[in-house]
Design goal:
By secondary structure, the protein is α/β, with parallel strands linked by helices. The protein folds into 2 domains: 382 residues, no CATH class; 85 residues. The chain has a 5-stranded mixed β-sheet with strand order 4-3-5-7-6. It has a two-stranded antiparallel sheet with strand order 1-2. Helix 19 links the parallel strand 3 and strand 4. Helix 5 crosses helix 7, helix 6 packs antiparallel against helix 16 and helix 14 crosses helix 15. The longest helix has 39 residues. The radius of gyration is 27 Å and the shape is elongated. Keywords: Cell membrane, Glycosyltransferase, Membrane, Transferase, Transmembrane, Transmembrane helix. One of its GO terms (biological process) is lipopolysaccharide biosynthetic process. This is Glycosyltransferase RgtA/B/C/D-like domain-containing protein.
Amino acid sequence: MFKKISIDLLAPFLFLAFFPLFFFKLGQSSLVSFDEAWYADIARNILKNADPINLTWNGRAFIDHPPGGFWLTTLSYLVFGVSEFSARFSSATSGLFTLVLTYLLGKELFNRVVGFCTAVALSSSPWFLFRARSGNLDVPLTLFFVVTVYLAVKCSDNKKYLIPLSLSLAFLFLVKTAVPFTVLPVVLFILVTSKKVKIADIKKPFLIFVIFVCGWFLYKHLKQPGFLRHYFKIGLPGVSVKTSFADNLKLMKEYFHNGIGKWFWPGIASIILGTLTFQKRFWIFSILFLSFFTPFLLSEKGHIWQLVPLHPFLILALFGFFWFLLERITNLAMEIFNKVGKKYQSAYNLLNTLKIPAISICLLVISFYYSYIQGKRSWYEFIDIPAFISDEAILSKEAGKYYEDLYIDGDFLPTAIYYSEKVVKQIQNEELKGIFEKDEPFLVITYKWRLDRLEISEAEYEIIKSDRDKILVKKASTGSNP
């Protein structure tokens, strides 16, 4: 009764309490290079071009990732308009829904308390929360990882979830390049070990998956013949058998530890020890982690944000194993009291009465205590901070008021493109002087000291706007009004 009623009543209020973590001051700072401004502009181009399939960026086709994640941002634009807030809204919303689905997955594999504690703890995972507040693909990807595994687990008992599973899996493949392949082994494991799912049952769901995913692959391959090679180059960067597995493992360990914080070591221990129980629910985590980590062991080019999809599963394994362990210990004590006779019957009855509430309270205390510690740090590091509008955003937006071509003398191409809404050219150090030798008028975002060092006369340009150490200049020419 404690588990069922109390947690079910508390969960909706808790998820409402999580809103500030994901949405407070979400749009107050300018978008940054690389991915945020980059992806925001790609989503905006879907609206401009009225083409949700063929993505473009800076006047060229974009094929690094499928369109699914950008569709979510485009929907945000349709509702809220194009802004920093709407560029991040789909990711933040995905983060909040990931907590809900993690709770449901935990309830399905273990119980409500485990799911609830996992959701609370996940909200404190530094890089999960950071990426959820950033306009990227990692947290939408994480959401559909959790949804897919949840629906696969539901299919074990009810075949009606096979169609939703196929749709979730298909969209997962349309969110980000290559990574979704790592979920296939665990989905197959869940379905193969199910007593209710037969091969005939998966024909229609499989066909749906093939139509959406393979159809998209085939279309892109026919339109851009080098697409498949580029797909795996982006999705599996630097993968090679000629690499140091030990160094790669150490790097991934550091990334994962820093990304998830205090949940790392207990979670890893729970994955390992849970495997030894030979229970299907723990093998789900083991297979997923093995599948997900294998490409990273073969590559030295992994990044901390690429491990975010594992965060909910590691924390769920942690609280699931804690529950399993404490329940086993309590049951063992009860068995001992029961065997020694009536003398300890009262102790047996007390344990039997308090077992579930005591374990629940123990897990809730652990979850809330360490979540508060980590969440407080995140709150002051990247949530409740002053608004920051970059000089790159200010000058690029000003450049958008002029018709001339825009050059940038720096590594902020996505920001310049997003805020100027122009096709932008990035120049290297030695090219700055060369463009001033052209006859055509142009704009360039650069530094005053760079122009002085190259001995470019002030008569050759006009400073339109300056901000901090950067300036927006226009090459002196007639007829270049905004």
